[in-house]
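Incident review: delayed structure delivery

Summary: a single-chain prediction request sat in the queue longer than the usual turnaround. Root cause was a stuck worker, restarted by the on-call engineer. No data loss occurred. The affected request and its eventual output are reproduced below so the record is complete for anyone auditing the incident later.

Affected input:
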Amino acid sequence: MPRPTVARIDLDAFRHNFRRARELAGDAQSMAVVKADGYGHGIEAVTSALSPDTTRFAVACIEEALAIRQAGHQQPVALLQGTHARDDLADCERLGFEPVLHNQEQLSWLGSGRSPDFWVKVNTGMNRLGFRPEELPEVMSKLQAAGRQHQVIGFVTHFARADDFDSEMTTRQTRVFEEAVAPWPGLLRSVGNSAAHFRPGQPLYEWSRPGIMLYGASPMENRTGPELGLRPAMSLEAPLITTRIVRAGESVGYGASWTAEQDTLMGMVAIGYADGYPRHAGTDTPAAVNGQRIRLIGRVSMDMLAVDLSAAPDAREGDMVELWGKTVSVDEVARHAGTIGYELLTGVTSRVPRVRE
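Output delivered after worker restart:
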C-alpha cells in the first residue's frame, strides 16, 4: 500500500476562482492560464474544469498546448513564449494555437509557408520579451507587406509590478502600451495578469489573463488568496507516522536547529523536500491537523518533517496533516519559506499523486 501523502485537487475551486476573475475583469473576456501543468495541479484536470467557462486558454509552450488537445479541448490556445522552431508554425496553424510573436527571428519565420493567427508582444518595461514601442510600426509594416496583417489577433504586454499598489510602474506601462498600439484600433489587447485584476481602475481591455488566482493563491503582496475571495484548489496532505514527547532540552532533526524549552508533543509527517515541500520552511511555519492549526519545528528533511502538536494534543498516528489548503493558505507557507505560492504549487513533485475531488 502506498503512503497516503496526496495533493487533493478541488475542481469546484477552479470554477469559483475563474468566475471571480471574470467578475473583476468587467467587460473583458478572460483566457485561463494553465501553463506549468496547470500550476502543478494537472493540466488535464484544470482544463476539464474550466472548459465550459473559458473560450481561450494560455500556456507557455507548444507541448502544453498539445496536452490541452490531447485532453479533448478545442478552444484556441495562446502560446505566451511563441514557437521555438519554424516547423512548429504548421502545427499551430493546424491545431488552432496562437503563438505570441516577440522577436525578429520569429518574424522572419512568417515569410514562408502557412502561418497561424498570432499575437504581437509589446515590451513596455518588463524587458523580457517583446518589441519596443518604437519598433512596432516597422514590425506591423513587415507583416502588412507579407500579406499577413489579417492574421494578427492583437497585442499583449506583461506587467512587472502589478502586485505592488505603491508602485507607479503599472500605470506607466499601461500608458506606454496604449500609445504604442493606438495606430491599430481594430486589434485586440491583453495586459491583465492575475494581479492586474485587483488594481482599482486598471484597464484590462478585451482579454485578461488570470493565472495564479485560478488556483486560489494570491498574486498580491501581503495578501492571501482567501483574503482576495479565492478558494484554494490544492490541499497538500500527509499522514502523521509517529508521535512522541520531546523532553525539555532535547532537539529534533538535522542540525539540531530546534530545542524544546519544555516537554513537547511532537509528530513526524511523511512529507519532505523530495515531495516539493520547501526545505527553507522552518520552525513556526503553519500547518494543520484535524482542523487545528499547528506549527513546524526544526528543519525539513527529504522525506519527513516535524510538527509541534501542543495545540492539537488529540492528534494520533495516521491523522492527516494539511501542509497547505483550506485551513492554512499556501501564501502563508510561502512567506515563511521566503518565496511565493507560485513556486510551491508548481514545485510539488510527481511523487505526490493528485486526486480530484
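Verification: The mean pLDDT is 95.
Action items: add queue-age alerting; document worker restart procedure.
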